[in-house]
Fold each of these.
Amino acid sequence: MKKKLIAGNWKMNGSLAANETLVKGLLAGLGAPVCQVALCVPSVYLAQCQALMAHGAMSLGSQDVSQHEVGAFTGEISAAMLQEFGVHYCIVGHSERRQYHFESDVLVATKAQRVLACGITPIVCVGETLAEREAGRTEEVVKRQLAAVIHANGCCISEVVVAYEPVWAIGTGKTASIEQAQQVHAVLRQQLQAASNQADRIPIIYGGSMNAANAAQLLAQPDIDGGLVGGASLKVSDFLSIIASAC
Ligand code: PGA
């Protein structure tokens, strides 16, 4: 059985002081988890968190990457730069980037390619908006988003992590029901199986208001291999409790 992955997505939260308290608190409470744990932190804090997390049981992640390899792209951060700071995971195509930065399916697929080329595992986010769900378009939307990444990455697709994050459940306190989440995960699993004979090793994790109270039930579903946790990853006790549910 593959290990579950619990990844925290700090988004644009944190400070030098708060990060230190959070990371030290997590390390103290973690022990040796039997699941994988990652923290996706704002880029300016990668060096700090790399130092804090050295030799610990958690992996370092970033929240985005440039689609370009190198050059005149003011404000951008390349995959090679992330690699230098010990980044293991990189979120690509988060709905907040698709929405506020107009990231397309093709752009997201290119970003996945960039990080894979540097030995970093992309956490590829897919998910429908409320309007798309209500119009009965959930499957079509998530399959289209994932298809772009499969198309661009060929057999490397077995090296990615897929995160199903229904947009209407992110930061809203509304979680997809266990059945809704499992159903979409099964659809994504089938799509991956059609693309790769190694699809069963690809973690498909759930994100969207996962918390200490609902994590155990979500993580017990056959196709839910972990969680991408926003708000609840900022509190030591909540995040530790989610990790405990996965282990
Ligand atoms: P949330 O965020 O847990 O705060 O809903 C999840 C995410 O956006 O990755």
Note: The longest strand covers residues 87-92.
Amino acid sequence: MSRWATTGAVGLYVAWWAGVHAGFAVDFTKESAAEKAARMAWFQEARFGMFIHWGLYAIPAGEWKGQEIPGIGEWIMNRAKIPLVEYRQLVHQFNPTRYDPVEWVRIAKRAGMRYIVITSKHHDGFCLWDSKETDYDVASTPYGRDVLKPLAEAARAAGLRMCFYYSIMDWQHPNYEPLPAWDRDRPGHRPDMDAYVRYMKAQLKELIEGYGPLGILWFDGEWEPTWTHERGVDLYNYVRSLQPTIIVNNRVDKGRKGMAGMTEEGDFVGDYGTPEQEVPSRGFPEGVYWESCMTINDTWGYKKNDHNWKSATTLIRTLVDVVSKGGNLLLNVGPKADGTFPDEIVERLDAVGRWMDVNGESIYGTTATPFARLRQRCTKRDGRLYVHVFEQPASGAVVLHGLTNQVRGARWLANGTPLRVVQRDGAPALEIPEGLPDPHDSVAVVEVVGMPGAVATTIVQDDDGTVELSASDAQREGGVRYDMTTDSLGPWVGSQDGAEWAFHLKRPGEFRVEIEYACGRGDGGEVQVTVVDQAVTGEVKSTGSPHKFHRMPLGTLKLTEAGEWRSTVRARKSETARTAMYLRAVYLVPVTPAQ
Ligand code: FHN
């Protein structure tokens, strides 16, 4: 840790010590930006962590009484409406004989992960440690031993931070309110949130003092009305009072408002935003911390029939996408009931690890891209830009629009091969030879004089006059999400869903508007592309699959002046469709090619 960070941490400790010994509670939400930066330093350096969802739900693994239960595996008690008296019988089946925490940590470290967040207690209330506050825990199972202690020891021995997920919502506790809707006549229930908060605090004390120091307390289940901002502030301060340097996510409070759980500074507590199963369309200002949590298939807790695994390429590119916007990626594993990781997960994490072995320098401790055009992923650190090249660029070059810093040179990180730097469109451009060094993501290291701040260029017209408005560069509205696997935006349901781009036009003229989209069977609807006050519309029909993309002209429009323009897309699905389309890009193609 840097001297500055150490000073910050020491300052924090002294304030805490004085506060506690003077008998008054310290309000940790009032710390300075420098103190917070010191506390968050390891988090910003780490960039990549392992999420683990493990508990009784791994036993049914998505099935109940012979029925496949839809939805995420750890919600089976809710989705199958299992009364507690039945669900808690699973305690007598929990016996992960093949649980090997050292192997779990080895897999995480081999993947390049720097911290581990495990569900100490999920919504079902079952505890993975021997808690004095309840017998609904691992000590009551045939396994009988503490799961968390050996994992924390293995993590620390390997140099990884140990972190605990803890659910505020609790489907079993006699004082938690509300009682689960599917188990209303449960005997002995006495709603009393003050008593329940005392229970939580006692358990959090066990976790922090018995297994700490911890990296993060990862709260979840904060959305029910009985949990309030006031209770969140109190719990945040309580946890920090037990370990002042601990990091607490924004779900301790009602902070998940907005895309990345980030709202105006100060109206909620929690140290960082927690977008889930998505990557925010734009980065956040420097100094705003956030972490995207994602599954490798579609469930957090293990489900035997969920085989929708993301590819290693998608996982690597998602990590790069997140870090290039200034965030961390918390990638989830749902272990089986026997304590092993599914083979498909181990294979993918090993592939990610091989990429990280060569390219980790472009991830760890880097900060967000200086470029507004996010399609060109870039991370930066210590006078170096790391330009991430996913596919061979059709133009043969990657143009670093807006970069004014002097470029000293460029090379592939993987093999040191020098890359030619030329001028294109008045900006430095890397010539990218055929034959990228890595099929997932080839990283070009660009040495620059000084570190560029945010280079707020918009999308610039290509040499041939075309303007490409791509999915990854869009500012999204409504329910539209960016999917890395298909490099597209969806779903498009109604008028609230939209995408917008700002672009710079050097050569005005008449343009043909084309969309590149995919549409599954039964999907389809109407699409409209608008550029300021001109609009072209069309009907989108099935292309046969959400992964089969088709490029279609919609009509022409005239852009009469050079300068800054904005374009928006809206689409409305047809009655029976799930979505109108999956949109990969909008192209403005000059009707009369540029001279
Ligand atoms: O309901 C939980 C869910 O089971 C899972 O733990 C995710 C992980 O972030 N959090 C909640 C849904 O937002």
Note: The first helix runs from residue 3 to 21.
Amino acid sequence: MRALTGLDGQRSIGPDMSAGCANHRKRLLLLVPTTTYRTEDFMEAAGRLDVDLVVASERDNTMAARFPDNLLTLPFDRPEEAARQIETWAAGRRLDAVVAVDDAAVVAGAAIADALGLRSNPVAAASATRNKLVMREQLRAAGVPAPLFTSAGVAEDPAEVAQRVSYPCVLKPLMLSASRGVIRADTPGEFANAFRRVAAILATPDVAGSGAGADRILVEAFVPGAEVALEGLICDGVLDTLALFDKPDPLDGPFFEETIYVTPSRLPADTQAAVRDGTARAAAALGLRDGPVHAELRVNAGGAWLIEIAGRSIGGLCSRTLRFGTGMTLEEIILRHALSLPLGPTEREGAAAGVMMIPIPRAGVLRAVHGREEARAEPAIEDVAISAHLGQAIVPLPEGSQYLGFIFSRAATPEAAEAALRRAHAHLRFDIGP
Ligand code: ADP
Ligand code: CA
């Protein structure tokens, strides 16, 4: 093992990628979008397995030509083309598994797996998770409890659309993530404003260029209630719940900034069972069959309502809260599953754990971060990771798409893990200037 410079320029850990490809070792292809936060954790997990690692990114990498066995450039936004390129590359080479580390590569990953006969979700299922309107239609067809919905073209008259929807409702893009462009509206006036705001986000070059779905806006009934996130692994169509997170801060809008996640859930056992059942039904409805799932549901007196299900693991750096069996990480479970290596027990450790995605206080340029040492010194705090860099433009929701940073806690109880996050956060001060 040696340290590598990741494709995104960050330091990451991984196996020696210049090593020759001994035939007896399994070979793993990791699809790593340049925008992901997941590189380091997946590279570290791969480093703990005895595999030859191949890393593909969508951006041209000058190193790729020098390491054709280990570094590839692939068009993640054209899955069939990506699959064709890997078929050519894999002729005469052995490839045992492909894993997309994040949303932007899941369809390409499924297409590659399909072409090479590797373990993954079907392409249609991966595609359905990447388009919220398709997802809603398939959940409705299968009778999975989920919000009522309609959709409108971005070019439609917002005032007219506002007349044909019910309130309160939630407007959202079809293919973005991390709550970007998700806005609640309680009145036709709020709706028209929100509609224009989502349309403007969809018209920005990075979004408009990202492919299908940028021409419509989804409108859903607002589902009140507590929100949870389920982290799972599907093996041959059977869902194994790896962790269930409560989101103790109310998410009532108008924007839906993610903050605290705490596991294990404090919800009653029957509610947790309803969440698992809803997730399993949603996965089956979409045809998800093999790989990680991250689902978000809202629970209220009417039951558990599916907000979203993705064929990938939890985003940001949040997976660092999780430890399984004898110390396995979530990424190691995902890689072992894809490689058909023994998994062992996947029961989460006994302690409670939490993560806070640090709320963005205001827009501007990040000048300084104060109080990190004090935050880290709080009991039960494991780490304070500031992922934004000094000089970076900080953009709040609904337009923003990047995290300020993450606070991690581990404690005997969920209450203590949550309280530690709040105490640590109170020490942090962000100088955000013009
Ligand atoms: P994204 O892919 O950007 O995360 P989601 O559909 O998951 O988009 O929405 C982000 C957040 O917005 C959810 O976690 C939830 O808090 C809130 N939200 C989205 N849709 C609804 C809804 N229909 N009712 C209530 N809250 C919602
Ligand atoms: Ca979501």
Note: Confidence is low (pLDDT under 50) at residues 1-22.
